[in-house]
Amino acid sequence: MSPLSRTKTRPRLTPNPFSADDADAENIRPTGKPRSIDRRPGVERAIVLHPLRERGDQLREPQSRLDEAVGLARALDLLVAEAAISPLRTSTPATLFGKGRVEAVGERVRALDVHVVVVDDALTPVQQRNLEKAWNAKVVDRTGLILEIFARRARTREGKLQVELARLSYERSRLVRTWTHLERQRGGFGFLGGPGETQIEADRRLLAERMAKLKAELVDVRRTRALHRSARKRTPFPVVALVGYTNAGKSTLFNRLTDGQVLAKDMLFATLDPTLRMLKLPDGRPAILSDTVGFISDLPHELVAAFRATLEEVLEADVILHVRDIAGESSAAEAADVRQVLNQLGVDEQAGRLIEVWNKIDQLPEDDRLIVLTRADRSAAAQGAAAVAVSALTGEGTAELLHLVASRVDVADPVDLRLGADEGEALAWLYRNGRVVDRRETDDGTLDLCVRLDPPALGRFDRLFPHARLKQAAE
Predict the structure, then answer these.
(1) pTM value?
(2) Diameter of the chain by CA atoms?
(3) Tens-digit pLDDT profile for residues 326-369
(4) How far apart are CA 339 and CA 364, in angstroms?
(5) Which of 148, 174, 98 lies closest to 268 in space, CA to CA?
(6) Please, what is the angle between helix 62-75 and helix 142-153, to 10°?
(7) Phi then psi for 97, rounded to 5 degrees?
(8) I want to staple 379 with a disulfide (CB 3.0 to 4.6 A). Which of 38, 141, 330, 387 is the partner?
(9) 376 with 420, same domain?
C-alpha cells in the first residue's frame, strides 16, 4: 500500500464554461452537459522536518539536507507550507523526537491546516504510528517518500516490478497500522490473538506470495539483461554509462551527446528507467550511451536491492561517466555518496574507466569557473582520476569529453591494413566498427590504414573481407 494512498481526497468539480447564467448573458443556448468531475487527488499541504543529529553528515550542511527533503516533497506534488531543521540530541524510541518537540509540531500542524508531515529520516513503524496519532496527520519518512516518487515515475515493466518489490518490502512491517479499524475483532479464540490478527496474517501471506512472484520475474529480467549484454559484447560497440547524484544533469548531458529526447527537468528523480542511445565518438567508432537512475544519500536498501538488475549495466560498462553538479554547495558530499554506491556494486575506481564530469560550470562565477577549469586540466594528466568540466546546457566542454571517452575505449592495439581502391565497402565497415587512427593514399589508389579494432571485430573483419591484406612490417 502506498505511503500516501490512505490520504483522504475529494473529487473536485470543474465549473462548466457554458453554465446557464453565462449562456443567458451571452445569448448562447446551454448545452445541458453536466459538470465534469476531476478525480485527480487534491494538493496536500505538508510540513518538512529534518532531524539534526549531533553526529550528522559532516560534508553536507543541514540547510542543504533540508532543501533536498523539500525537493523530494515537491517532486511528490506536495505543497510545502513550512520546512524546519529540528535539533535531535537523543533519539526517542517511541516518537524519535522529544515530547516538547512533538507538541510544538502538532501545534504547527493544526495552525497551518497540514495533512502530511515529512520526516527526513528513517522511522520505525512504532514511531510512525505514534507520530500520526499525536499530530493527527499522515507521517512519511525519507524511505517512504523516495519509494512513492519511484512508484509514480516508473514507466517500463521492469521499473514497475522493481519499485513494487521495494515498496512491499517496506510496507511489510507496517501492515499493523492499516488494520486499526479492526480493534474490536479478535483474530484468535478467546483471549488469544490481537486486534484484526486474522486479516493481518492473511495480508502477510498474500504479500509474501506477491514478493516471491516479483523476485522470480526480476530473475527473468536479470537473465534477459544478461543476454542483451552478451549480445552487445559480440558487437564492436563499447558501452558508456552515466551515473551521478539525482538532479546532477545526467539526462541533459545525455540529450546533448546523443541528440536524444529524454526527459530533462530540474526535479529530483526525473529519470528512473534506463535509456540506451547511440553515441558518435570523434574520429572513431560509435558507442552505446546508457542513462541510469540517479543516486541519493541514505538510499533505501530496498531500492538498492530491487534496482540491482538495472545497476548491473554500470558494472558491464567500458567507461563510467560520474556526472557531478560542480556548482552545488554539496558537490563533494554528493560525490562521496555516489562513490559509496559504486563501491557497493563492485566498481573499481582505479581501473581507469571512471571519468568525473563536472557539470553546470555555466552557473559558476567567473573566478570559481577558472579554478574549476584549472583543476580539471590538472586531473586529466593523473592516472585513473581524469575530470572534464562541462556545461550540458550550453555544450561547453563536451567535445573534450568525447575525445577523452574515445581514448579510454581504444584499448586494442593498432592494426595496419592495406585496402585497394575498389574496397570501399571494407573501408566503410572499418569506420563504423573501429577507429581509423591514420589514413594514407598511395599513387596507385590503394589505402594504407592504421586501425584500432577489438579482437572480436578484427575476427569479423577477416571473415567478411578475407581479401584485405595486412601490411608487411618490412614495408
Answers:
(1) 0.69
(2) 103
(3) 998 888 888 888 888 788 777 766 556 889 999 999 999 999 99
(4) 24
(5) 148
(6) 40
(7) -85, 160
(8) 387
(9) no
